[in-house]
Write a structure and sequence with these properties.
- It is a single chain.
- The chain has ten helices and three strands.
- By secondary structure, it is an all-alpha fold.
- It has a three-stranded mixed sheet.
- It is globular, with a radius of gyration of 25 Å.
- The relative contact order is 0.13.
Length: 331
């Protein structure tokens, strides 16, 4: 009995996405490109917001945190996914598997809460503009982001501690490309159907609650802008449309997975790829293409680089010419 309760599985095997070698090479190039764009795009948004003082406002402070979370969430699964596409044996250590579960739920939970905070920020800015600076001051923004990270950490800790207490002594093939909580639980050497449904429902309820809170915020926003002038309403809806697009892209797949069946199908794998790889690369594109302030900040960055580059070239040529005149003897 004591021996059965001990974990004897040292590694898990991923079944992956497809068996076709040609398709796996194509996906390797595609996913590697997407991940590179995710890293560059999200870190660029973070550094741009930090560097440009025009973007030092609550909305962009939250956007910088969202971009950083997207970068982290994609980094939990995508590097392993891309390298596994070139390997016949797709294995991961027991510790690596638990780390993936912890990371996915940590950054996924933090992103949900940050998106809700961004929705609240837009609600205050549009529905209570006169009180915006007092409600969304710097200290409150820091506290809201800190709470978002703590909620994500507690959510992931509960999930990870639950699965660490289970014995793994038999099957070790995970029908996915990363350690998804319900699929790993099914490999435990004990009855997990009831607990699996509870854990799955917990994540699903959390995602659904965050989504409902966001919809409530935007319902109030829409009702408010309908009573304002056409120009004001158009500007307000334009500001919120980027956030709504990100919300739908992220929460849609999450709620379908968590509230649906625990059995993995090709649709479950597609949805997992969507919210761990596709959505993080789309977020910076959505915000940079539709946000006027971000585009203006990029223009200022280009102008600064151009002026700085011209200044360096001028001084280089000046020093070069002066040295040539000094060194070369007069004839």
């Amino acid at each position: 009995m004591e021996e059965a309760n001990q974990s004897v599985v040292s590694e898990f095997i991923f079944q992956g996405l497809f068996d076709s070698e040609e398709l796996q090479i194509f996906l390797f190039v595609t996913f590697s490109t997407f991940y590179l764009l995710t890293v560059v795009g999200n870190l660029f948004v973070v550094l741009l917001i930090i560097a440009d003082h025009h973007l030092h406002s609550p909305m962009y402070f939250l956007l910088a945190n969202l971009s950083f979370v997207d970068f982290c969430l994609s980094s939990v699964t995508t590097p392993k996914l891309t390298t596994d596409l070139l390997q016949e044996n797709k294995t991961i250590s027991f510790g690596g598997c638990m780390s993936q579960i912890l990371g996915v739920h940590f950054f996924g939970g933090a992103e949900m809460t940050i998106l809700v905070t961004m929705g609240y920020d837009r609600y205050v800015a549009i529905c209570k503009p006169l009180h915006y600076s007092s409600i969304m001051d710097r200290q409150r923004c820091i506290w809201l982001v800190w709470i978002a990270w703590m909620i994500g950490f507690l959510h992931s800790l509960i999930q990870t501690v639950t699965i660490l207490g289970m014995p793994f002594c038999g099957p070790r093939v995970v029908d996915s490309f990363f350690c998804d909580m319900p699929l790993v639980m099914k490999l435990a050497c004990t009855e997990t159907d009831t607990l699996g449904r509870v854990i799955n429902a917990n994540s699903g309820i959390y995602a659904t609650t965050c989504f409902i809170l966001l919809m409530i915020s935007y319902t109030y926003i829409i009702l408010t802008v309908l009573h304002r002038s056409k120009d004001v309403a158009s500007k307000a809806l334009s500001t919120c449309s980027s956030h709504l697009a990100v919300v739908v892209l992220f929460f849609g797949p999450c709620m379908i997975i968590f509230l649906g069946s625990v059995n993995t199908t090709w649709m479950d794998k597609f949805l997992s790829v969507l919210y761990t790889l596709i959505t993080p690369v789309l977020n910076p594109a959505i915000y940079t293409l539709r946000n006027k302030e971000i585009k203006n900040a990029i223009k200022r960055l280009k102008e600064f680089y151009f002026i700085h580059h011209q200044f360096n070239v001028y001084h280089f040529l000046k020093n070069y010419v002066s040295k040539r005149i000094t060194i070369e003897p007069l004839k």
